[in-house]
Design goal:
heterodimer; A: 485 residues; alpha/beta; Amidase signature (AS) enzymes; 13% strand; globular; B: 504 residues; alpha+beta; Arc Repressor Mutant, subunit A; nine-stranded mixed β-sheet; 16 strands
Chain lengths: 485, 504
């Protein structure tokens, strides 16, 4: 029953040499292999490398060496570049791409001792909210395998939810950590933009992408994030500000915390059962000494349209490098250069990626740039200003992470707009660059519901603290889907 | 490494030479030209990566993952490129942007790895400067510089030796460039060349670009249009891409102007398009029309922060600026009493100016003599062998050694040319050549008198004619005495003594 231990517990047990990393890796690899046909959470399972790394971890621990995560098994979302292990981004375009270098997140976690067991499935190029756009097939929700796990970090969330891993990296451009975390009943944090290096994290929308983690608990997230975060001279947008010890102080009382209940998130789109869970969760905090009041972000309704201009615009440019010339998919026997471009890209990219490239190309075109891109950037400033005003009054904002619980596979694929609206509560934090997390806060008709906590820039510690105190009062984060219990 | 330009003759060509008419003038047409000059910045590493910028390496050996546009990599700005751009901006009296922004210029091409070029668009680092050029009539014209922005160079597509294939060399990808955009204020091909040369001089003075045109370190696009004299509205322009020599720029513009006038005079319309200059045929030809032009979809690069420059930084860069060509030329006029023409030629490059000053300092009181020799015999000898002034073939010390002997009358100017030639080929000092060849000038009055008397004795008939009033024969006697002394008689003394002796 080792898989029921949290990441923090496992790290401590490994350090105390109550556990061997190799045994742990074997146990998890067994679970991964067994669940793969059912969940499809992994794109690559790196058993051999994992056992070698675990052996080295045990040796280090035996010598009294090692870092905070030495021997702890983790997985990486398959858009973090890993030297020698293919990095597909969930796309046919990169089906056989082996990166010659490690992403900063990958090398930092390795330096802290973590052992990678594999690369996790995801929506193609992180574009999607259901993990259905993956070239490697959809991931299934461990709570009900007819349902989606959310996306784009669907593989990461499903794996942690089914306890195939105690923790995994993930990324969030418009909700891709928080939404699947909510739908899979786990904890997921998207840090402040610039907190975690984007070097080696294959870009979707550069000004919105941020790496983070999904784990069972807030304490686990704090531990893992502490090892990943920090300034990276190779990422100009990473911020050179010290990383606090997110773990220290988690147990401190919440006394006096000012919580803003995000008025606009309790709209007609919010499923009543979900709302009930959220309101019950919010009721826990006053008991912990926090004060809850309603706060309004008047411009937040503009988030989705602004996002679906900015993100595709950046994606259309970021994905231009996949041209069949230097790496990635190349069509067979191109007639000429244009044919090489057209066919390589047509064959290599899936429908959703193409849709966004076309949208992005359109909004950046001469004559449309001002009306779309510039206007969207102005909206972004308005939304950021809304958050700034709100954080002048309260310490954190709370509300639902998603309007509904997990939906059926195939239910929303025909209508992209319905799919896009699943991110309605998560997108604003990306547009403003502020940190946000989702914690499990109950079940609506048997499916997990996520409470979203949003903070001002670099207030990760505050978010994790609130989430941890909440998890000390509740046990939603300890619930495991029956099949995987 | 030989340089494609920047020799002394190039500088001399920059100066006015009368007689040639400007194209268009007298035909009722006015030429309007704007230049976009691309100068590669002389940083050791690339603008957004740590890869080397050295020229000439085997293909794709100097392209790191960032230059190759690999998935996940990110650009990091080389601050040295920023400093160089600021240096240029300050040198042309431009506004230095306190905040400038990198933008992506999106288009597909195999030698553009990311599918976009990182450039600057709406907020360039340098704006509104000016550069003075000398026109053909010797007057000075101020040419506005609209902007100068930082960007990365693309790679190269290679076709030679690859039948049916295109090779891609990404060594150049990511090399920093500064693109210098002039106002459309140039009115002739000669103006354009003078402006281009002035920019070339400037970037080399500033040590921000090696100016090597053969290697493509300095190249330009010319926007050319013509309009009826007196017309205000600009004509339709064409853009001649990627010209990498002064001569080709001049020829390409001349060709293009004539082509456009021909079209307009025969009732046609100039098509806005991009054209290429073919130096072998001496003509421009269409590359792509405006309709085929890319929509570059510029937008701020989200991977890079805006470049913020403080007052202190800018002032520190300003304080480190060298003396610039115009200021140096003015100083040469006031300090050495040189004509403006000489000062202009001698300051065309920093190396030449330094050389001149070293010679002038070593031979006090003879700055014009030094100028004449540097611009004359030395320049001719260097150009003949395609050598740079700093190649070391004739150090300033050695040339000064020669000039000192002219100044102290050890040798005449005529003998000096002979000595110079011997110095050039042997590498020896002036003094040792003068000594071994016995070229010391004769200044001993009695020795010259002796020689005169001998010549008079040998040529009684000519002497009689001279004395009978045939003054022209004076030159004959000068020549004979010079011949007898192997040219070593001091010419002034000889003249004086002949005038005394010949009349009898």
């Amino acid at each position: 029953m080792i898989h029921r231990h949290t990441l923090a517990q496992l790290a401590a047990e490994l350090r105390a040499r109550k556990l061997s990393s190799v045994e742990l890796a074997r146990a998890y690899l067994e679970r991964i292999q067994a669940s793969q046909p059912l969940l499809n959470a992994f794109i690559s399972i790196t058993a051999e490398q994992a056992l070698a790394a675990a052996g080295a971890a045990d040796a280090a621990l035996a010598r009294g060496e090692g870092g905070p995560l030495t021997g702890v098994p983790i997985g990486h979302k398959d858009l973090f570049c890993t030297a020698g292990v293919r990095t597909t981004c969930g796309s046919r375009m990169l089906e056989n791409f082996v990166s010659p270098y490690d992403a900063t997140v990958v090398s930092r976690l390795r330096a802290s001792g973590a052992v990678m067991l594999g690369k996790l499935n995801m929506d193609e190029f992180a574009m999607g909210s259901s993990n259905e756009t993956s070239h490697f097939g959809p991931v299934r929700n461990p709570w009900n395998t007819d349902l989606v796990p959310g996306g784009s970090s669907g593989g990461s969330a499903a794996a942690v939810s089914a306890r195939l891993l105690p923790g995994a990296t993930a990324t969030d451009t418009g909700g891709s950590i928080r939404q699947p975390a909510a739908l899979c009943g786990i904890t997921g944090i998207k840090p402040t933009y610039g907190r975690v290096s984007r070097y080696g994290m294959i870009a979707f929308a550069s000004s919105l992408d941020q790496g983070g983690v999904v784990t069972a608990s807030a304490e686990d997230a704090a531990l893992m994030l502490r090892e990943m975060a920090g300034f990276d001279p190779r990422d100009s947008t990473s911020v050179d500000t010290p990383v606090p010890d997110y773990v220290a102080g988690l147990d401190a009382p919440l006394e006096g915390l000012k919580i803003g209940l995000l008025k606009e998130f309790f709209d007609a789109g919010l499923d009543p059962d979900n709302e009930r869970c959220i309101r019950e969760a919010l009721a826990v905090f006053p008991r912990l000494g926090a004060k809850v009041r309603q706060v309004s972000l008047p411009n937040i309704s503009l988030s989705v349209p602004a996002y679906y201009v900015v993100a595709p615009a950046e994606c259309s440019s970021n994905l231009a490098r996949y041209d069949g010339v230097r790496f990635g998919h190349r069509c067979k026997e191109p007639r000429d250069l244009t044919d090489l471009y057209k066919r390589s890209r047509s064959e290599g990219f899936g429908a959703e990626v193409k849709r966004r490239i076309m949208t992005g190309t359109y909004v950046l075109s001469a004559g449309y740039y001002d009306a779309y891109y510039l206007k969207a950037q102005r909206v972004r400033q308005l939304i950021a200003a809304d958050f700034q005003r709100a954080f002048a009054e309260v310490d954190v904002l709370m509300g639902p992470a998603t309007p509904t619980t997990a939906f059926a596979i195939g239910a929303k694929t025909a209508d992209p707009i319905t799919m896009y609206l699943n991110d309605i509560y998560t997108i604003s934090a990306n547009l403003a660059g502020v940190p946000a997390l989702s914690v499990p806060c109950g079940f609506a008709q048997g499916l997990p519901v996520g409470l979203q906590v949003i903070g001002p820039h670099f207030a990760e510690q505050r978010l994790l603290h609130a989430a941890h105190r909440y998890q000390l009062e509740t046990d939603w984060h300890l619930k495991i889907p029956e099949r995987f219990a | 490494m030989t340089k494609a330009s920047g020799t002394i003759l190039d500088a001399a060509q920059q100066q006015p030479r009368g007689g040639e008419s400007q194209e268009g003038t007298g035909t009722g047409w006015e030429t309007v030209i704007g230049l976009e000059i691309h100068a590669q910045l002389a940083t050791r590493s690339k603008i957004f990566s740590g890869a080397s910028t050295a020229y000439g390496a085997a293909p794709n050996t100097q392209a790191c993952l960032v230059d190759l546009g690999y998935p996940g990599v990110l650009p990091v700005l080389n601050t040295e490129a920023v400093r160089m751009a600021v240096r240029f901006g300050l040198a042309i009296g431009a506004r230095i942007a306190r905040q400038s922004v990198f933008a992506r210029k999106n288009y597909f091409y195999p030698d553009l790895p990311k599918g976009y070029q990182i450039s600057q668009y709406e907020l360039p680092i340098v704006a509104q400067g000016a550069i003075d050029i000398v026109l053909e009539d010797g007057s000075i014209k101020r040419i506005g510089v609209t902007r100068a922005h930082l960007e990365e160079d693309a790679g190269k597509s290679l076709h030679e030796g690859l039948p049916g294939l295109t090779g891609i060399d990404l060594n150049r990808a990511g090399t920093p460039l500064i693109e210098i955009v002039s106002e459309p204020e140039l009115r002739s091909a000669r103006d354009a060349v003078a402006y281009m040369k002035k920019v070339h001089t400037l970037v080399r003075y500033l040590e921000i670009c090696d100016g090597n045109m053969q290697e493509g370190s300095f190249r330009c696009d010319a926007n050319v249009s013509v309009r009826r004299e007196g017309a205000e509205k600009l004509g339709t322009r064409t853009e001649i891409k990627n010209v990498n020599s002064f001569r080709y720029v001049e020829k390409a513009i001349q060709y293009e102007v004539a082509r456009q006038i021909d079209i307009l005079e025969s009732g046609g319309k100039v098509v806005q398009e991009t054209r290429l200059y073919d130096p072998d045929r001496g003509e421009t030809r269409s590359m792509r029309s405006k309709e085929e032009a890319n929509d570059y979809r510029y937008f701020p690069d989200p991977d890079l922060l805006p470049v913020e420059l403080g007052e202190q930084y800018i002032e520190a860069v300003r304080a480190a600026l060298p003396e610039l060509p115009d200021a140096k030329a003015a100083r040469f006029v006031s300090q050495y009493g040189l004509p403006a023409y000489d000062a202009g030629v001698l300051t065309a490059s920093r190396e030449l100016a330094d050389y001149y000053e070293a010679v002038a300092r070593a031979v006090p009181g003879e700055p014009k003599l030094a100028a004449n020799w540097v611009m004359g015999d030395l320049a001719a000898a260097l150009n003949k062998e395609g050598l740079d002034i700093d190649a070391g073939r004739m150090t300033a010390e050695r040339l000064a050694g020669l000039l000192a002997r002219i100044a102290d009358q050890t040798i005449s100017g005529k003998i000096a040319k002979e000595v110079f030639e011997a110095m050039w080929s042997s590498g020896e000092s002036a003094d040792s050549i003068i000594d071994t060849k016995g070229l010391r000038q004769i200044t001993d009055t009695s020795a010259i008198e002796q020689a005169i008397e001998a010549v008079m004795a040998k040529n009684p008939a000519q002497l009689a004619e001279y004395r009978a009033g045939k003054d022209k024969l004076f030159g004959f006697f000068v020549g004979q005495v010079m011949k007898a002394t192997q040219g070593k008689a001091n010419p002034a003394q000889l003249n004086e003594l002949l005038k005394k002796k010949l009349p009898g």
